[in-house]
């Protein structure tokens, strides 16, 4: 996916400083359930901003799919973020009461989006604000040549309405304009960001204080009232007194419509319709300057396109072509209508070879959009149509194979991948996908054969060593893990397992040691091993250690099937635990840099080469490094990008202020991290007493003594699947315990100048993180796990503000089982009294839970 998933949002306030921004214009969109006009809005603005940052949350319609499609269409311009924490929207009581620095506040959510923009000028765009291209182009060209400073250019849009069975557009005399001083192009600074609206507290607002205001008039169509279900902004929540009166006044003015036809005569007669207090900018678009409304004909386009498809299925190709052409007259860039037109013409034999290739490409692209939307059946049809038009279109075979694999049509997927390999036998990803299909069918021998074929083809070093190993008829050797010297290293107030110095240090050492811990699981091991072996360039550069933690059935034969002669396999005589097994691998290593790679993860081509190029020339102060990464699922499909790029940007090198990020939360994932062996020798290995957060702790321990190197390219993949431990850890409350312990441990070695601030931030942030997930154990019926989680989060943060958040959460329906448990155990009141608000006695909850 092209959308960054933001589970732990943070705001880098320095991003608001003008000196940290580039000359140019950022568009900012905050959207939720805007599928009806979102596409039209994006298309209308995209050419008139230098970037478009889109942040969305809690969508229940196709908004995410639309955003994903446009992010792929405009990858150089659009950066999209799915904000995962719950957000209390504007016009809600919670938004009024929440602190603006709370991640659930709409203000914080808005400023998070703003913090992702990179240009000095920003323009805020709603998902139903379809821009007027003629006006936007004029503004854009002016701002590109004239850099504004400390200025806000306010603008308006026209509220559009339509009547049933009437294609004309109207506006409302009682409320003709949207935007009277709340939306603008403005120059961003720390003073000019979002905050609560001083005049209307249930809304947020950009703070324009200190900026010179001008008004530039009408530049967009406001399509909110054209939506099928234009709803009240209060969304059924209760506001009190003056707040409710203000909201009702806004609603009344919009709903008590006095509609007038938006004719050219009417526009000319009311050219000064909008009355804004600030002076007009010399670029000014009055009401009379509005063009005819021609960008909102999607309903008619859909009607003609669908009718054409129906006629085509009936064999009435001439009539179908006429319908498609009509749809394209209304909307020339309608991809579906254009593809259907090409397919109909091809069925009539009316396309040249070049035209067939053109329409094959369009079919493939439309198939990709359908795949993103989850409409696999349509996607498969478009891919097959693309292949029918151009039998040599490699991308169509590959995409078809992926989609067939997604829906479990294994044999057809294999056939599609085989055809793709005939067209291009040097595509590593195809071999991976083909092997995944064989493994899904429990055809391990076939999967191994594919991996060996690919590795031999792609890596001559592998081919040479494996061939020699096989020809020598060497009996495979399964090594027993030798005794590891036991010792401790003290960092701060804690003792960590010591990592002994490398044996025979005078002998040549490889640059890399890759340690792959395994225990019983085999589903993804071949893919993991292959991703490393394809990058292996000889024993002098890399050693690969597989550490089998006493699997029930040894995994040696499976590992040896593709790694014989290269991989060194150790088996523990008994299960020593996950982290001691990792520490044993580090202790046995000889490489200068250590990479722990779990058997369900993988690295992408170039991982070791890119990092080695950087790390060979980096200062000795660099003790660890990380790259960006991707999340992928059980079927091998990439689902989203990692959080790293949103935290650290696109510039590689030594990370500045790394404590500010890693001290509060951990955006890194293990397959993307490498650690200098000397660093381990100095600070020790993984801390076995931490059940759930050992990586976060050791990353902080490293930061206490070393710098980190950052590679922004996505070079690793972290798998999300049903066998992960995180869900169980949340359900039992253990994760909250480990988070709290991890914060307490690192507090002992944090630099004195950062200690208080970072620890406070970490406690507050992780209190919120755990509280938002406190319903997970309740949903699985584990009330005791939920109670344990509350005990732990109160140890994280027991401030009055934290307790207030906890009490608010306990009043929600999802917390009812926990309320009853607390009352039954600690309070002398009947369970029936739990209806409605929590009783006054719950003010003693902190004491009760602590018991």
Keywords:
28 strands, eleven-stranded mixed beta sheet, Spore Coat Polysaccharide Biosynthesis Protein SpsA, Chain A, 851 residues, 33 helices, single chain, Serine Threonine Protein Phosphatase 5, Tetratricopeptide repeat
List the helices and strands and how they pair.
Elements: E1 3-6, E2 22-31, H1 38-45, E3 51-56, H2 63-73, E4 78-83, H3 93-97, H4 106-116, E5 119-125, E6 129-131, H5 133-145, E7 151-159, E8 170-172, E9 177-178, E10 184-187, E11 194-196, E12 204-206, E13 212-222, H6 241-255, E14 259-261, H7 264-269, E15 280-285, H8 298-313, H9 317-330, H10 335-347, H11 353-372, H12 376-389, H13 394-406, H14 410-423, H15 428-440, H16 444-458, H17 460-471, E16 479-480, E17 488-491, E18 494-497, E19 512-518, H18 525-533, E20 542-548, H19 556-563, E21 567-571, H20 578-588, E22 593-596, E23 602-603, H21 607-615, E24 622-632, E25 638-641, H22 644-648, E26 653-654, H23 658-662, E27 673-676, H24 677-683, H25 694-703, E28 707-719, H26 726-732, H27 734-747, H28 752-771, H29 775-779, H30 783-796, H31 800-810, H32 816-826, H33 845-850
Parallel strand pairs: 1-4, 2-3, 2-5, 3-4, 7-13, 13-15, 16-21, 19-20, 19-22, 20-21, 24-28
Antiparallel strand pairs: 5-10, 6-13, 7-9, 7-10, 8-14, 11-12, 17-18, 22-27, 23-28, 24-25, 24-27, 26-28
Domain Glycosyltransferase 2-like: 513-629
Pfam families: CgtA (PF06306), Glycos_transf_2 (PF00535), TPR_1 (PF00515), TPR_11 (PF13414), TPR_8 (PF13181)
Organism: Nostoc cf. edaphicum LEGE 07299
């Amino acid at each position: 996916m092209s959308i960054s998933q933001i589970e732990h949002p943070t705001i880098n306030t320095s991003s608001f400083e003008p000196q940290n921004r580039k000359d140019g214009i950022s568009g900012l969109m905050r959207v939720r359930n805007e599928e009806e006009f979102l596409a039209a809005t994006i298309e209308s603005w995209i050419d008139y901003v230098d970037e478009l940052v889109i942040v969305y949350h809690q969508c229940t319609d196709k908004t995410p799919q639309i955003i994903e499609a446009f992010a792929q269409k405009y990858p150089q311009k659009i950066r999209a973020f799915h904000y995962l924490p719950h957000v209390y929207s504007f016009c809600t009581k919670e938004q009024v009461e929440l602190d603006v620095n709370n991640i659930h506040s709409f203000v914080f959510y808005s400023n998070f989006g703003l913090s992702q923009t990179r240009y000095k000028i920003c323009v805020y765009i709603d998902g139903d604000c379809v821009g007027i291209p003629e006006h936007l182009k004029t503004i854009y060209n002016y701002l590109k040549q004239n850099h504004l400073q400390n200025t806000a250019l306010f603008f308006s849009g026209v509220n559009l309405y339509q009547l049933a069975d009437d294609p004309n557009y109207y506006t409302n005399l009682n409320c003709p304009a949207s935007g009277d001083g709340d939306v603008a192009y403005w120059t961003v600074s720390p003073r000019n960001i979002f905050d609560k609206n001083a005049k209307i507290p249930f809304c947020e607002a950009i703070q324009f204080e200190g900026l010179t205001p001008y008004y530039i008039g009408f530049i967009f169509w406001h399509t909110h009232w054209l939506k099928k279900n234009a709803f009240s902004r209060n969304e059924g929540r209760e506001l009190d007194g003056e707040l409710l009166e203000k909201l009702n006044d806004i609603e009344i003015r919009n709903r008590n419509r006095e509609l007038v036809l938006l004719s050219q005569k009417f526009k000319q007669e009311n050219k000064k319709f909008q009355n804004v207090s600030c002076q007009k900018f010399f670029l000014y678009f009055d009401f009379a300057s509005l063009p005819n409304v021609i960008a909102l004909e999607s309903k008619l386009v859909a009607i003609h396109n669908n009718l054409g498809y129906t006629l085509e299925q009936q064999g009435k190709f001439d009539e179908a072509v006429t319908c498609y052409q009509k749809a394209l007259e209304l909307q020339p860039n309608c991809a579906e209508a254009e593809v259907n037109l090409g397919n109909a013409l091809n069925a009539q034999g009316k396309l040249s070879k070049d035209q067939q290739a053109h329409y094959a490409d369009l079919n493939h692209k439309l198939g990709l959009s359908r795949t993103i939307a989850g409409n696999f059946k349509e996607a498969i049809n478009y891919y097959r149509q693309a292949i029918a038009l151009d039998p040599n279109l490699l991308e169509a075979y590959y995409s078809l194979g992926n989609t067939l694999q997604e829906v479990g049509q294994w044999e057809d997927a294999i056939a599609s991948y085989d055809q793709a390999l005939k067209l291009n036998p040097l595509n590593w990803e195809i071999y991976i996908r083909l092997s995944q299909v064989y493994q899904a069918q429990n055809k391990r021998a076939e999967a191994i054969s594919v991996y060996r074929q690919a590795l031999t083809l792609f890596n001559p070093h592998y081919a040479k060593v494996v061939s020699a190993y096989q020809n020598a008829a060497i009996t495979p050797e399964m090594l027993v893990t030798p005794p590891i010297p036991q010792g401790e290293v003290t960092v701060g107030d804690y003792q960590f397992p010591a990592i002994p110095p490398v044996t025979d240090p005078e002998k040549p050492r490889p640059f890399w040691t890759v340690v792959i811990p395994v225990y019983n699981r085999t589903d993804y091991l071949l893919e993991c091993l292959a991703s490393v072996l394809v990058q292996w360039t000889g024993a002098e550069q890399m050693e690969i250690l597989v550490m089998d933690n006493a699997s029930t059935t040894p995994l040696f034969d499976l590992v040896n099937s593709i790694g014989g002669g290269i991989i060194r396999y150790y088996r523990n005589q008994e299960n020593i635990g996950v982290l001691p097994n990792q520490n044993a691998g580090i202790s046995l290593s000889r490489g200068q840099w250590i990479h722990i790679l779990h058997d369900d993860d993988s690295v992408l081509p170039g991982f070791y080469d890119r990092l080695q190029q950087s790390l060979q020339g980096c200062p000795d102060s660099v003790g660890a490094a990380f790259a960006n990464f991707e999340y992928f699922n059980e079927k091998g499909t990439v689902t989203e990008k990692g959080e790293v790029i949103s935290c650290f940007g696109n510039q590689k090198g030594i990370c500045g202020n790394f404590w500010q990020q890693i001290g509060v939360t951990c955006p890194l994932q293990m397959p993307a991290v490498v650690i200098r062996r000397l660093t381990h020798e100095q600070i020790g290995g993984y801390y076995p007493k931490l059940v759930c957060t050992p990586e976060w702790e050791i990353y902080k321990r490293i930061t206490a003594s070393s710098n980190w190197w950052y590679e922004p390219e996505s070079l690793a993949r972290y798998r999300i699947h049903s066998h992960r431990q995180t869900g169980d850890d949340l359900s039992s409350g253990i994760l909250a315990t480990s988070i709290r312990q991890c914060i307490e441990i690192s507090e002992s070695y944090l630099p004195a100048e950062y200690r208080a601030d970072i620890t406070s931030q970490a406690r507050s942030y992780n209190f919120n993180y755990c509280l938002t997930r406190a319903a997970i154990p309740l949903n699985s019926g584990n009330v005791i796990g939920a109670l344990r989680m509350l005990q732990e989060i109160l140890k994280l943060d027991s401030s009055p503000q934290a307790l207030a958040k906890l009490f608010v959460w306990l009043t929600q329906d999802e917390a009812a089982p926990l309320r009853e448990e607390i009352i039954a155990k600690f309070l002398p009141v009947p369970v029936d009294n739990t209806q409605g608000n929590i009783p006054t006695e719950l003010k003693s909850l902190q004491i009760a839970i602590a018991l």
